[in-house]
Amino acid sequence: AIESPEALRRIEDDCDAVVLAVGLGADLEPELPGSELPGVWRSLEFIEALKTGRPPEVGARTVVIGGGNTAVDVAREAVRLGAVVVTLAYRRTEAEMPAYDHEVEEAREEGVTFHWLSAPTRFLGEHRLTGVECSLMQLGSPDESGRRRPEVVPGSEFVLPADTAIVAIGQQPRRDLLAWIDGVELDGGRVRVDPETGHTENPKYFAAGDAVSGGATVVQAVREAKVAARAIDAELRRA
Questions:
Q1: Which of 124, 137, 190, 198 has CB 3.0 to 4.6 Å from 150, enough for a Cys bridge?
Q2: What's the pLDDT tens digit per position in 133-167?
Q3: DSSP 65
């Protein structure tokens, strides 16, 4: 593990090229009141529990917050774990949802319901989760992603009853590690590269995978790694 800038410097000194394939970090925190209540999960810890043979206990009513493939995945897992009502709340509409269409359709077939234009404002409960308060949203001007920005409809609060809530709103970039590398620039938390070579602004560093894409598929990560590998091979042959 690279635990210090000094360890990274040693790698730089020993190598002619370095590929950053560090992926993303921890879940983005919802920063909402009540997020510490029992029954509120982050998507990565929920998935980790599944993968390590410790299936999480979900209540009869589960609310999933998010609109990506991870959100759809954990919603489907909640159905399979026995939740009777699984609702996925997303702050935009289905048209803007980044999850794959076939994943959304398969989730719908499994019984997941979707609450569009809904954003959580707080988690409710005293000793454990009892509900997720949301506000209705409306779409305004496009943001940096090109999608219309969701805006709160004043006075539109409503409550989704919930025994379990799973927050799947994305992961944090590895800013701590990336800050140790001179010349590596971020664009919205993603490592900026030449798409033809995977080269960063630092002449020794290339990058591929979720650190570049912001979170996509394994297939895309492998393709980006191959682009970087070919570019490195060509560059070293010229040296």
A1: 137
A2: 999 999 998 877 777 889 999 999 999 999 999 99
A3: E
Q: Report the C-alpha dihedral over residues 89, 95, 98, 99, rounded to 10 degrees.
A: 70
Number of residues that this document lists for the chain: 239
Structure tokens at 222: 């492998």
Looking at beta carbons, which pairs linking 119-124 to residues 24 or more positions away fall under 8 Å? Answer: 119/89, 119/91, 119/150, 119/152, 120/30, 120/32, 120/65, 120/89, 120/165, 121/32, 121/157, 122/32, 122/33, 122/34, 123/32, 123/33, 123/34, 123/35, 123/37, 123/40, 123/165, 124/34, 124/159
Q: Where are the beta strands (DSSP E) in 185-233?
A: 186-187, 190-191, 205-207
Cα–Cα distance measured from residue 209 to residue 218, given in angstroms and rounded to the nearest whole number: 8
- Number of Cα atoms under 13 Å in the Cβ half of residue 186: 17
Backbone dihedral angles phi then psi of residue 64, each to the nearest 5 degrees: -110, 135
